[in-house]
Amino acid sequence: RCLSDWSSDVCSSDLGAKNDRRQIPGMVVAARDVLEQGLRLLELVDEKYSVMASVPFESSIGRHYRHVLEHFQCLLQGVASGEVNYDSRQRNPRIEQESAYAGAVTREVLA
Description:
The protein is mainly alpha-helical.
């Protein structure tokens, strides 16, 4: 998988080189930082991850995390195919119910 900006292509495998941040488009660096923050969040919320909040929110941390993570997946798939379609998200319930699985999927997106 490769991420691209208007002027150059950057493979996701290149994103691990922290010393070369000047060569990586700012948007890619920001996306990577957000995903790394997500991994740190998952370490903090284990038992609370899938607990539904009461009215008016009626959602969980896991549900919100899944929503955001699946947007990153759609973006990567769209860059590869030439069309980004956020409506085609998988809406994988396992991501919103299991923080360990959500972490594994996040690391896969970062790879």
